[in-house]
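Let us practice reading a record.
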Amino acid sequence: MLVSALLVAAGYLLGSVATAVLVSRALGLADPRSGGSGNPGATNVLRLAGRGAAALTLAGDVVKGVVPVLAARAADLPPGLVALVGLAAFLGHLYPIFFGFRGGKGVATALGALLGMDPLLGAAVLATWIVVAGVLRYSSLAALAASVLAPVYAWVGSGHPGVVGAVSAMALLLVWRHRANIRRLLAGEEGRIGRTE
C-alpha cells in the first residue's frame, strides 16, 4: 500500500507541473494564464505563442499523464490502482499545487493517462477527438465527445470497475472544465479550429 500511495502522490505532483507556464518562461513568453483564455494549456499557448510552443506544451502535458501510469504498471499495481495514479496526475494538472491550484482543462494529460493505462483505450479516445475535430472544426466539442465516450470505451475494453470509475471521474471533470465552452457552443460563439477566437 505504501508503494501505491507514493505513486499516487508522485502522479499528482508530476501532473502539477504546468507545462504551458514552464515552456512560456523558457521561451521568454508571457505567462499563458495572463492572456487569451487564461488557460494554461496547449490551445491557449497556440493562440498566444504559435505552433512550436504549443507542440512542446502538448507533448509535456501528455508525458506527465503517461509517465506515472507506466511507473504504476512497472510496479505491478492492479488495474484499479494504476487508473487511480492516472487520475491523480490528471487532478494535478487541473489543480496544480505548484501554481496556486489554477490549472488547465486536462485534455492532453487525460489522454496521456489513458494511453498509459491501455494504448487501445487512448487510441480510441484520440481517434474520436480527431474525427469530431476534423468534421466539425471545434476543439472543445471534440474534447467533450471524446470525454463522454471514454468511459464507454473503458467499459468495453476493460470492464474493470476501478478503471471505469477513474475514467468516468476524468470524463465528468473534463465536461465541467469545459462548461464555458459549452455555453459558447450553444450560443454559436465558440471559435472554430483554424480561425481566430
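A brief commentary: The chain has one domain: 2-187.
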